Amino acid sequence: MTTIPLDHIDLHDRRFCISYPLENDLLLASIRRLGIIHPLILLDRTPLIVVTGFKRLAMAQKLGFTAIPAILMDLDEREALLYTIHDNLTRDLNLVEKAHAIDKILHTGSVDELRETITLLGFQPHNKILTHLSAIASAEVTVKDFIVTHNLAMKSTRYLFGFDTEERGAIINALSRFHVTESMIREALETLSLLKVRTAAIPLVDLAEAVDGKDLEGRLKERTHPSLSALHRKLQGIKQQAALPPDMDIRVDPFFEKEYIDIRIRAKSDEDVAEAVRKLHALIDADLIRSIFDLTKGRIR
């Protein structure tokens, strides 16, 4: 190991870099306190080329280091690429990093090493998978950030890459405005894909105006299931006819997919409960509860 001045290293050469993103607050704090514990691996060229340690190098630059500990190795480019991939297998790689690794191996032209790397990273060696991973590797920064931030699964990214650049940008902008889980993103992408097949477009207005994930889900459901609007109107009509008191409410699944209803009562005394029960009996006698059940069970759609 030796100490290498940064100006001896080609800081812009990332031919062996699979790490994404390079920013890492924990690593930054560690290097600020203890320095670089594990030396970088550099290819012995002029100028020197980084093989492993891109995150450490980026954090060292951010902290104003002028030199870093490193080990110089004499490898050909194929060996250096395999070295960096296997070195990174000691940690959990995100999907973008896996895509980077496979895309770089793909360009070496070595079928055996490609097959081995794909297997090591948990994929099947199919052309569709390779094509998709290459698309991820060459995607825009905003797309890569979105994939990593939300830890998207392959299935979700397949949906995402089914849209053109403008559509993908609108989707990412919309879903980045509020908290969404990976499953919510996948469901939204599935629905948007269905709408694109049906109408050759996606509802950009709904994406822009949705206030949260649930609101977007509801807007998209109404577009894929137009009968939802009619069901909501019928429900509101029944509730108006029922004249529920302020301390009582009857709710159904927003998409009328569940066969049960929720009856909520706010009571401060036994008398309040008794009055609510009497009201429910009156609603049952008037067949209004049955009318709501008919909506949830789909009998009148």
Notes on the structure:
- The strands form two sheets. Strands 1-4-2-3 form a four-stranded mixed β-sheet, with helices on both faces.
- Among the domains are: 1-91, Alpha-Beta Complex (Conserved hypothetical protein from pyrococcus furiosus pfu- 392566-001, ParB domain); 227-296, no CATH class.
- By secondary structure, it is of the alpha+beta class.
- The model has no long low-confidence stretch (mean pLDDT 91).
- A hairpin with a 5-residue loop joins strand 2 and strand 3.
- Helix 1 crosses helix 2 (54-62) and helix 4 packs across helix 6.
- The chain has helices spanning 25-34, 54-62, 77-88, 95-106, 111-120, 127-137, 141-149, 154-160, 165-175, 182-199, 204-209, 213-224, 227-242, 270-285, 288-296, and strands at residues 2-5, 40-43, 49-52, 67-73, 248-251, 262-265.
- The protein is built from 15 helices and six strands.
Q: Could you give the topology of this structure?
A:
Elements: E1 2-5, H1 25-34, E2 40-43, E3 49-52, H2 54-62, E4 67-73, H3 77-88, H4 95-106, H5 111-120, H6 127-137, H7 141-149, H8 154-160, H9 165-175, H10 182-199, H11 204-209, H12 213-224, H13 227-242, E5 248-251, E6 262-265, H14 270-285, H15 288-296
Parallel strand pairs: 2-4
Antiparallel strand pairs: 1-4, 2-3, 5-6
Helix pairs in contact: 1-2, 4-5, 4-6, 8-10, 10-12, 13-15
